[in-house]
Amino acid sequence: MRYTLPDYKNCCVNVMNSIAKHYGIRTFHSTLPIVDNELKKGYKNVVVLLLDGLGQQILMQHLPFDSFLRQNFAQELSAVYPSSTVPATVSFKTGLTPFEHGWWGHFLYFKALGQTINVYTNNDAFSRKKVGIEDVAHKVMPYTNILDEAVRHNPNLRAYTLCPAEARDNFGVSQVTYNTFDELVEYAQTLCSLDGQKLIYAYYNHPDDTMHKTGIHSEESYKMINDLNYQVENLCKTCPNTLFIISADHGQTPLYESRDLTLYPDFLDTLLMMPSGTTRCANFFVKRGLEKTFEKLAKKYFGDKFEIFSRADIIKNNLLGDGIAHPELDNTLGDYLICAVSDCNITYSTLYGAPKTQPYGIHGGLTNDEMRVPLILYGDKTRNE
Fold first, then answer.
1. Using CA atoms in the order 347, 374, 52, 177, what is the torsion angle rounded to 10 degrees?
2. Considering the domain 12-103+141-252+368-379 in this protein, what is its CATH number?
3. Are 146 and 153 in contact (CB under 8 A)?
4. Which class is 256-357 in CATH?
5. Most Cβ neighbours (<10 Å): which of 70, 97, 126, 158?
């Protein structure tokens, strides 16, 4: 097999179900034994720290063996699919698979509006203008944050989300926004020092942003990851009686080629509407009766660099996960996904911008480097506050 399928028994979904179990909340999936055992030690505070893009391979390549993050590496996890921030962060917040929570793509088609929408910015994906209805994705696919549920079931618990000011989550528990990682560290230290139990979810949009702009192996990325290692070590070692669960939403791989759909007019003629999803997990609705033609042309133009999954294949392989399908999935998921298994993107100039071929970092596909992330655990019960 030339690609890595997600493992929904060893991913962030299971980590978060361990947390749900620990706080007496209903679980929807199996828990992760290594996290269960650590939580049993009874830490006052639990901090889930998500470092965007810090895949397993990147961790090993950029940090020495004796670095803090590598020394506290517990085990390898699978990313959910697509290996992108939208589906992964919602899985972190809910403990559900993308199949269940419905937030499986960056650009999703909403049938009720007849529009493909950027779920982050609430803009039309093609015109890039604001949609008339505020927060469409949240209205159509609302979800319950595990942190909210934990507080409801544990009156003495306080829960917080730490997120970048420019990427503020408009849905869920008490939020604290920051501008730099140093500020994140300061806020986390302060919250952990307060009386009472805390559950904290902290999201940082690097090293992902840095690698997108400069490449995985750039000096900037190397410095960013090594600086992060020292900052995280300082945070962990200054918060006694606190369990840190550190992981990533996905890894990255270098991009060397892009194929713009506008160069394949016969392929476009088979489509019912323009694509959605992401550049490495492109979603296609196909005109009835042209499925075989679509498959033939998809293999001709993309089969060397991509894997083609029909809707039946997606379900059979649990590509988006298992569980009870979100009702909106029937509308947002097309007839086929074309998923990257190499160093190539599918682009559509009016949706994703002009093709780019420089070796910058990218994710969303099924390569091993995109689909493997670390689980790092640190907690010191020997120190008193």
1. 160
2. 3.40.720.10
3. no
4. alpha beta
5. 97
